[in-house]
Structure formats: structure tokens, C-alpha cells
UniProtKB/TrEMBL annotation:
It comes from the Eukaryota. Residues 8-26 have a biased composition (Low complexity). Residues 1-35 are annotated as: Disordered. InterPro entries: PLAC_motif_containing. It holds the Pfam family PLAC8. This is PLAC8 family protein.
């Protein structure tokens, strides 16, 4: 009879841990929860103060729009995109005004774009457009009123969208150049006094 095999203890080594994945922003699709919450809060604000919002006007110190309302054919690419896909221009302007002036992280199909499409299915595209136009007027201190915002959004949404897009781009470039100039101002207090004698 053969002897039973010796029992050799088996040592297990821990499995190597995988290298940590590089931190990448999570891209969970075109719908961003922060954007949804922002739009919901803006709708609630307008609905809770509807009389105040509808009768609102810009202050006397408000500036004129740099982009003309009927200057919608220049640049032609923005004109064509807005005519064929107004939701894309709407979403781009929203991203520039509320998220990043340089359009970092911008995707053509985004929450605001989908909101515009959904509202447009019911003929209500003018509501988010008028809200965005009001937001642009407030942010850049531009002339206008809520009733004008509604009227332009209802009657000529392409012209209104292009004007908003061009105005936001122009104003954000102004803000950027002003901050760069302010950043590089010479400090006169740090200069040596001139030598005499």
C-alpha cells in the first residue's frame, strides 16, 4: 500500500492590485443634472415672481446690444446652424453664458439643447429663449425688457438666437480682455525713485 501524499501547505499571494484608472470626467450622456437643477430653479423663480419678471426693464445705465437683431446672416455658419438646428445654437449660448466663456467642455447636444427641442415640440421654444435672453441682458447690463424678450423669441427666434450668441461671445471676450489688462497693470508703488545728482 502506498503512503498517502504529504500535505504541503499552499501559500497564496495576494493578487496584484490594478493600477488606478486615470481620473477622467464622467461623461454620462448629454443630460447634466446640474443643468437640470439650474433650469428648474430659473423656471421656479420666474413662476413665483411672474408679475415682477414680466414687468421688469433694464436700468437706465444699461448698454445697447453690440450685435444687431437683424445681423443674423453674419457669420453665415452660425446662421445656417441656427436655421437648421436652433437647439444647438441655444445650447452653445447657454454654455458660454452660464458655464464657460471659452466653451471648454461644450458638447453640441446638451441639456439646454434637449430642453429647447422638447419645448419646441409643444410650440413653447420661446419660453427658455426669453429666459436666456433675460439672463444675457442681466449679466451684461443690456437694454431691453421681458416683454421685448418674449416678443423677439416668439416672432423671430432665429434672429434672436443669433443675436444672443454673438452678444455673449462679444461680451465674454470683453470681460476676458479686461481681466487680462487688469492682471498686467504696472504697480507704480513698487518703482524706484529717480536718481538725482
Amino acid at each position: 500500500m502506498a503512503a498517502p501524499p504529504e500535505h504541503v501547505p499552499v501559500t497564496t499571494q495576494p493578487a496584484p492590485t490594478p493600477a488606478p484608472a486615470a481620473a477622467q470626467p464622467a461623461n454620462n450622456g448629454p443630460v447634466d443634472q446640474a443643468d437640470l437643477d439650474d433650469w428648474k430653479n430659473r423656471f421656479n423663480h420666474v413662476l413665483s415672481r411672474s408679475g415682477e419678471v414680466v414687468n421688469s426693464k433694464s436700468p437706465e445705465s444699461a448698454q445697447s446690444w453690440a450685435a444687431g437683431f437683424f445681423d443674423c446672416f453674419n457669420p453665415i455658419d452660425t446662421c445656417l446652424i441656427t436655421y437648421c438646428l436652433p437647439c444647438v445654437t441655444f445650447g452653445k449660448t447657454h454654455h458660454r453664458v452660464r458655464k464657460n466663456a471659452n466653451l471648454d467642455g461644450y458638447e453640441p447636444i446638451n441639456t439646454s439643447c434637449l430642453l429647447f427641442c422638447g419645448a419646441g415640440c409643444f410650440g413653447l421654444h420661446w419660453i427658455p429663449m426669453a429666459m436666456q435672453r433675460m439672463n444675457i441682458r442681466d449679466k451684461y447690463n443690456l437694454k431691453g425688457s421681458c416683454l421685448e424678450d418674449i416678443l423677439t423669441s416668439c416672432c423671430c427666434h432665429c434672429c434672436s438666437l443669433i443675436q444672443q450668441d454673438k452678444e455673449a461671445e462679444h461680451r465674454e471676450q470683453q470681460l476676458l480682455s479686461a481681466s487680462v489688462q487688469q492682471q498686467y497693470q504696472p504697480n507704480n508703488e513698487m518703482q524706484y525713485p529717480p536718481k538725482t545728482g
